[in-house]
Amino acid sequence: MEEQQTKRPIFTPIVLILLTFSLIGNVFLYTKTLQNAQTDRIKQGTEILQAGNGAKQFLSQAVAEIDSLLSHQDIVSRLTAKSRLIAAYRQASELTLFVNEAEAVNGKQFPAAKRGAAEFVNQTLASLQAIGNHEGALSSGETAYLNGILQVFKACQSELASFQHDTINQEQSLIILVDSAWPVTAGKLLGLMNEPDNLVFQP
After folding, report:
1. Is the residue at 4 inside a domain?
2. How far apart are CA 35 and CA 199, in angstroms?
3. 35-44 burial string, b = 16+ CB within 10 Å, else e?
4. Is the pTM of this model over 0.85?
5. How far is the C-alpha of 92 from the C-alpha of 121, rounded, in Å?
6. Which domain holds residue 76?
7. Per-residue pLDDT tens for 123-171?
8. Helix/strand/coil (H, E, C) string of 51-93?
9. Considering the domain boundaries, does residue 6 fall inside one?
10. How many domains are there within the chain?
11. Is residue 102 in some structural domain?
């Protein structure tokens, strides 16, 4: 009498194949998620580095041109310096971005202040555009405003001098995200921007 051969259930290998494909798919999706997260972090870190360096350039140019504006009494030289000063404000958004990125990394806004970085930039730009558009020497009010805002810019420049990140690559972009120093610097910058009671020039 022939022994009956044991038949394997056909669904067993099918289930194993499906489980294998499912596992491969999950690993792929997980890997893709990690890659996307890494890419996002590198992008954010790069933006922080660029914003910090751009803010330093803006502050340096602003200090130089405000000083130049104060030293010239004739309208031609003064307007030349003023033109360069206004042009420097093209990079002013980097100062705002630097502060905003610090708040994003901290997960919260800095303590309530009279004005944000964007408001500081807008108010000083509008005031500087209104100053010195006339023949003769600057008025006492114009000189006082320029000297006051110059001190604020110099203080911000001095504070941001500690941000030494000239090299921008993937490694540095990731390192800056775990650097606890620069968000503190950003908070101090915002504090300096809020020291003046009023930033709007009154003729």
Report:
1. no
2. 45
3. eeeeeeebeb
4. no
5. 7
6. 12-193
7. 999 999 999 888 888 999 999 999 999 999 999 999 999 999 988 888 8
8. HHHHHHHHHHHHHHHHHHHHHCCCHHHHHHHHHHHHHHHHHHH
9. no
10. 1
11. yes
Listed as own residue / partner, the contacts of 116-125 with beta carbons closer than 8 Å and 24 or more positions apart are: 116/190, 117/189, 117/190, 117/193, 120/193, 120/194, 120/199, 121/89, 121/92, 121/93, 121/95, 121/96, 123/199, 123/200, 124/149, 124/199, 125/86, 125/89, 125/92
Which residue in this structure is represented by tokens 């006339």?
134
- Residue 74, judged by CB atoms within 10 A of its CB (0-12, 13-18, 19+), counts as exposed
Spell out the residues 6+ positions from residue 153 whose beta carbon is closer than 8 angstroms to its own.
59, 62, 63, 66
Residues 108 and 199 sit within 8 Å (Cβ to Cβ): no
Closest C-alpha among 65, 51, 57 to residue 96: 51
Three-point CA angle 19, 23, 24, nearest 5°:
120
| Extended beta strands in 104-145, E state | none
